[in-house]
Design goal:
Low-confidence stretches: none
Number of strands: 11
Shape: globular
Length: 117
């Protein structure tokens, strides 16, 4: 059974940093493309960043230059380093993994990020 477990969310002041982790199990992690999504109250879930199984990254415009997605296949983990956080970054952040061989996708349970002074 494939599981994605996010961690690292919390409360941070504007301008601060957080590092989110997404740990995968139950699947060969290196074949997955992984993305971070977020959903704020009353808003649709939106893409934040993705990293392919080859390490190519892509970022949503609002986070480009502030967030960095990375992965370590040996640790079955993807991280999202978030710097210069703004109140509008507050949301539940979800990890998503896509298996390009089967086109199946998986979601984590989400981790809350709150940006407030």
């Amino acid at each position: 059974q494939v599981q994605l477990v996010e961690s690292g969310g919390g409360l941070v002041q504007p301008g601060g940093s957080l590092r989110l982790s997404c740990a995968a199990s139950g699947i060969l992690f290196s074949i997955l493309s992984v993305g971070w999504y977020r959903q704020a109250p009353g808003k649709q879930r939106e893409l934040v960043a993705t990293i392919t199984n080859g390490g190519r990254t892509n970022y949503a415009v609002p986070v480009k230059g502030r967030f960095t997605i990375s992965r370590d296949n040996a640790k079955n983990t993807v991280w999202l380093q978030m710097n210069s956080l703004k109140p509008e970054d507050a949301a539940v952040y979800y990890c998503n993994a896509n298996n390009p061989l089967s086109s199946r996708e998986y979601w984590g349970q989400g981790t809350q990020v709150t940006v407030s002074s």
